[in-house]
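Sequence and structure are kept together here, with a separate record for every protein. A complete record is shown below as an example:
=====
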Amino acid sequence: MHLSVNQGIVLLLMILWTIPLVFILTDPIVTRRERIAWVFATLCVSWFAWLLFLWLAPVLPRKKHFQ
């Protein structure tokens, strides 16, 4: 498969655009609801939302489970 320069640039941009989504979807710290909200925000405002995610998440304190 041979890509032109323009196709390569588009492919690179698509990969870069999906990196924040991968990080949010695979982060074990956030809850399901927080993850859905962050993915929605990232799709709407992309990289800015991902930077906020890195800075703010998790929003709620976690309860410790003792066994």
Remarks:
- Residues 5-26 form the longest helix (22 residues).
- DSSP finds three helices and no strands in the chain.
- The chain has one domain: 5-56.
